[in-house]
Here is the input.
Amino acid sequence: MRVYKTRDYDHASRVAANILSAQVIMKPDCVLGLATGATPEGLYKQLIEWYKKGDIDFKKVRTVNLDEYVGLDGSNDQSYRYFMDSHFFNHINIKKENTNLPCGTEKDTEKACKDYNKIIKSMGGVDMQLLGLGLNGHIGFNEPGAAFDKETHVVDLSKSTIDANSRFFASIDDVPKQAITMGIKSIMQSKKVLLMVTGENKRNIVKEAFFGPITPNVPASVLQLHNDVILVGDEAALGDNFDKYLDL
Ligand code: F6R
Here is the structure.
């Protein structure tokens, strides 16, 4: 594992953006695995800025995202497709047909999962998978207890997630009850993993993930078994727990 400890969130965003850029420069038609959430917003902003300056070119890049809500199409501002378009894809020269998320509107969700696995395989797998970390150790929508051997699959969202999401919807009935996520197996098959963790509230869980037992109860702990993990975290999240691994 390589660890980059940064001063703060903005610095972490620049370091992570540097690492993704290096991947794109070394392999212009690479497959990037991408994530939504608050953590990568600064990273996407930084990449857009460098694209606008002419320092990075996405025209051959292909992407697959970790997850999508069942039942939401890309025009819904709570869908992950909408997030990716508005935070990243609409601002760079990536070809939209080269950007992939699980299909949230396919009625046959099992088919949507199989189709997504096929897409990932047809691309030759993911070169670099960006991950954020949930407060309970989840990666993608793989919540505590998730089996390590799953590829893309459907998950039932917990009541607490549904309740938390309800503030974004007109009524609780409109809140998605399920999501499609790449499984732990799909994530572990990525050639490289770039995990970004910031903020003091993630300090305990990131420590547990890398220094605790490898267990489905902490899904991210499986990353201890991946042979090419890059962790970018700010001081608030890493403390001195990772100092023996430091590159920066
Ligand atoms: C996002 C995803 C999630 C988030 C995680 C952290 O596509 O799959 O696992 O990475 O919930 O979210 P933030 O970054 O909002 O703390």
